[in-house]
Write a structure and sequence with these properties.
Layout (H helix, E strand, L loop, with lengths): L1 H24 L9 H6 L5 H4 L1 H8 L8 H8 L9 H29 L4 H16 L5 H4 L5 H25 L3 H22 L6 H12 L7 H23 L1 H6 L8 H20 L23 H19 L5 H12 L22 H16 L2 H28 L3 H11 L4 H13 L3 H14 L5 H13 L6 H10 L8 H15 L8 H13 L7 H14 L3 H14 L3 H13 L3 H17 L1 H12 L2
C-alpha cells in the first residue's frame, strides 16, 4: 500500500513539474529587460579580464556582493547578449528545483505533526502544486537578474529541510549526526543563501519559527537550548553589521521621495496588496514596474495605512494565539510576514516588487493548504472542498499561462503594464525602449512627450528626445532647444535612474561619432550644469565620469584627470582610479601616478572583493 502511494505521488509530482515547465517554456525566448542589461553588461569583459573581474568588480552586487549569483551569470558569458533563452532556461531550472524542495519541506512539516504518510503526501502535493502555479512568480523567473532571488531561495529551502532533518535525528538520540545537520543549516546554508542575495539572512528567522512552533516542548533539554542559542548568532552578526553601516544605509534615502518611517508605513499597505496578489490573482495586477506607488506620509495619511497596520497586527496576534492548536496555520502566516521583514523595513529600497513574494508566498500557500486539507478530512465537505480546490488550481494555471505568454510580446507586455499602472514612469520608459528597438521613433517621441507632461522637473524625456533627434535622425539641434534644456537643468531636478542611463548612452554614441547633430561641447556644458545644480538629486560621481570621457574625446587629458578625481571624491571607485593612473602616466606625471597606485593598493588591502577583481589590472600598470 505504501509503495503504491509513493509511486502515485511520484507520478503526480512529475506531472506538476512537466506542466509548470511547459507553461514557462513559452516565455524563455523573451528579451532582456529593465536592469538586465545594466547588471549583466560586464559579462562582455570576461574574455579579456577573467571571471573574478565580473564576480567581484564589474557585476552588480548589493551590500553582500552576491558572488554566487554573479558566478552563475559569469559561467554563461558566451551567451551574452544574444541568447536570453540560455539565461532564462537556467532560471526556470532553478525554479523547478525549488518546487521539488517545497514538496519535501511541506512533507516534513506534516510528519513533525505526526500525521500519517498519506496525509503528509497529500498536504505536500497541494502545497507544491499551488505554489508552483502562482502567477506572481512569473516576473521573478523570467526576469533574468532575479536569478539572485531564485538561488537564495534554493539554499534557504535546503536550510529549512536540513534543520528539520537534524532536529528529528536528535529526537531519535542520534545527536552527533543531528547536530551536524543543524550546524550545516544555520551557518553553511545561511552564508550560501546570503552569497546569492542578502535576503538569505532570513533563514535563521525561519528556523526560529520552526524551533518554537514545532519543537517548543523540548526547551528543558540542554542540547536544544544550545541549538536555540546558535540560532541567534547569525542574527546578532547581522544587527552588528546594520549598526556599523547605519549611516551608509540611511544615506541612500537622498534619492527617495520618502523617509525611512514613511517607507515602513507604506509597506503595511504594500504587504496587504501582496497577500491579495498571491491568493486572489488576476491578470491586471501583475507588472514588473510598480514605481509611483502612493507613499504613506503618516499613520492616517492615507487612512488605509492605519487600517493596514491594524489588520497586519491582528493577523500576527491570531498567528501567535493559535500556534499551539494549529501550528501549521500559525507557521504559514508568520512565515509570510517574516519573509518581508528585511525588504519592508527602513532601508532605501523601492516600495514594491513582486519578486519579494517568491519565498514568503510559500507561507500563504501553507496556510490555505491547511484549510483545504482540513476540509478534505471531513466527509460532508470533501466534495465541495475538492471542487473549489480544482477550480482554484485551474484559475491559477490559466492566469499563469497568460502572464508567461505576455513575455514573448514586448509591445503588448509593456503597453499592458503601462495601462495597469499609469503612475509608473518606468513602464513608459520601457515602452520607449521597445518602440526604439522596433524602429518606431514617432511612437517613442509620443511617449516621451507624455512623460514630459506628467513631470515637468524630469529631464529624462528631454535627454532621450535629444538622443533620437541628434543620433538617430542626425538632426542638428537648434540653439533654442538647448537654451530650453539649459534653463531646465538649473531648476530642481527630479531624480531618475533612467536619466543617468540616458546620459550614459548618449555620451557613448557621441564618443563613437554616431551623433552628427550634437556637439560634444554642448553635451559637456549640459552635464556641467547638472553637476553644479545644488538641487539636483542625482549621482554626481557618474556625471563627473562622463565629463572625463568627453574630455578624453577632445584630447584634454588634464581636464579628464580633474573630473576623475572629482568623481572619486564623491564615491571611490577602483576602475576610475585605474583610469586616473593610466592618464597620469600618459601625461608623464609619474610621481602622481605612483602616489595614486599607493592609495589604490592601500584601499585594496582593506577590500577583499576589490583585490580579487582588480589585482591583475593593478599589477599590469
Amino acid at each position: 500500500m505504501v509503495a503504491r502511494i509513493n509511486k502515485l505521488c511520484l507520478l503526480l509530482c512529475s506531472a506538476i513539474l512537466v506542466c509548470v515547465g511547459v507553461i514557462y517554456f513559452q516565455g524563455l525566448g523573451s528579451r532582456f529587460i529593465f536592469d538586465d542589461i545594466y547588471n549583466l553588461q560586464g559579462l562582455a569583459e570576461i574574455k579579456s579580464h577573467g571571471l573574478l573581474y565580473y564576480i567581484f568588480g564589474s557585476g552588480f552586487s548589493g551590500p553582500g556582493g552576491r558572488p554566487l549569483s554573479l558566478f552563475s551569470f559569469a559561467l554563461q558569458y558566451p551567451d551574452w547578449p544574444d541568447n536570453p533563452f540560455a539565461f532564462k532556461f537556467i532560471n526556470l531550472s532553478i525554479h523547478l528545483v525549488n518546487v521539488i524542495l517545497v514538496f519535501f519541506f511541506s512533507r516534513q512539516l506534516m510528519r513533525r505533526l505526526q500525521k500519517d504518510e498519506t496525509q503528509s503526501l497529500l498536504f505536500a502535493l497541494i502545497v507544491m502544486m499551488l505554489w508552483s502555479l502562482l502567477p506572481v512568480h512569473v516576473n521573478t523567473v523570467l526576469y533574468t537578474i532575479q536569478r539572485m532571488t531564485l538561488i537564495s531561495a534554493t539554499f534557504t529551502l535546503i536550510g529549512l529541510i536540513s534543520f528539520m532533518h537534524g532536529r528529528n535525528q536528535i529526537l531519535k538520540k542520534d545527536i552527533k549526526k543531528g547536530f551536524g545537520w543543524v550546524l550545516f543549516s544555520i551557518f553553511v546554508c545561511t552564508l550560501i543563501a546570503i552569497s546569492a542575495k542578502e535576503t538569505g539572512i532570513l533563514l535563521p528567522i525561519f528556523l526560529i519559527l520552526i524551533e518554537f512552533l514545532f519543537y517548543r516542548d523540548l526547551s528543558s533539554v540542554r542540547v536544544h537550548k544550545i541549538i536555540r542559542l546558535l540560532l541567534t548568532i547569525p542574527l546578532v552578526c547581522f544587527f552588528i553589521y546594520i549598526l556599523l553601516n547605519l549611516e551608509t544605509l540611511q544615506a541612500g534615502f537622498f534619492i527617495r521621495e520618502f523617509t525611512p518611517w514613511q517607507r515602513v508605513l507604506t509597506e503595511s499597505r504594500v504587504i496587504l496588496d501582496y497577500i491579495l496578489v498571491v491568493l486572489i490573482p488576476h491578470p491586471g495586477v501583475f507588472s514588473l514596474f510598480h514605481d509611483g506607488y502612493p507613499v504613506s506620509t503618516s499613520i492616517v495619511m492615507p487612512l488605509s495605512t492605519l487600517i493596514s497596520v491594524t489588520i497586519i497586527g491582528v493577523m500576527i496576534f491570531i498567528s501567535i494565539f493559535i500556534r499551539k492548536v494549529h501550528p501549521i496555520a500559525g507557521f504559514g502566516l508568520l512565515f509570510f510576514f517574516s519573509g518581508h521583514i528585511l525588504e519592508a523595513g527602513p532601508l532605501s529600497l523601492d516600495l514594491y516588487f513582486e519578486h519579494r513574494n517568491y519565498l514568503p508566498s510559500l507561507g500563504l500557500i501553507i496556510l490555505i493548504t491547511a484549510l483545504f486539507t482540513t476540509g478534505l478530512s471531513h466527509g460532508q465537505y470533501k466534495k465541495y472542498v475538492s471542487g473549489f480546490l480544482g477550480l482554484y488550481s485551474l484559475a491559477l494555471l490559466v492566469i499563469l499561462f497568460d502572464q508567461v505568454g505576455l513575455w514573448n510580446k514586448p509591445y503588448e507586455q509593456v503597453i499592458t503594464w503601462s495601462a495597469n499602472y499609469p503612475q509608473s514612469k518606468r513602464a513608459k520608459q520601457e515602452l520607449v525602449n521597445v518602440h526604439l528597438e522596433h524602429g518606431n521613433y514617432s511612437g517613442a517621441m509620443q511617449v516621451l512627450n507624455d512623460l514630459s507632461t506628467i513631470s515637468k522637473n524630469d529631464i529624462y524625456p528631454d535627454i532621450r528626445k535629444m538622443h533620437i533627434e541628434s543620433c538617430m535622425f542626425s538632426h542638428e539641434l537648434t540653439v533654442s532647444s538647448f537654451n530650453h534644456l539649459f534653463e531646465k537643468v538649473q531648476m530642481p531636478i527630479e531624480f531618475n535612474f533612467a536619466t543617468i542611463s540616458a546620459l550614459d548612452y548618449l555620451v557613448l554614441d557621441v564618443l563613437q561619432g554616431q551623433c552628427p547633430g550634437l556637439k560634444s561641447e554642448d553635451l559637456e556644458e549640459l552635464i556641467s550644469l547638472i553637476v553644479s545644480n545644488q538641487n539636483a538629486i542625482i549621482d554626481k560621481a557618474i556625471l563627473y565620469e562622463l565629463l572625463s570621457s568627453l574630455a578624453i574625446y577632445k584630447g584634454n587629458y588634464e581636464a579628464a584627470v580633474v573630473h576623475l578625481r572629482e568623481s572619486i571624491s564623491v564615491k571611490f571607485n577602483v576602475e576610475r582610479k585605474l583610469r586616473e593612473i593610466t592618464i597620469l602616466k600618459e601625461l608623464q606625471r609619474y610621481n602622481e601616478a605612483a602616489s595614486s597606485i599607493y592609495e589604490l593598493k592601500e584601499y585594496m588591502d582593506t577590500d577583499l572583493r576589490a583585490k580579487l577583481a582588480y589585482d591583475n589590472s593593478l599589477s599590469n600598470l
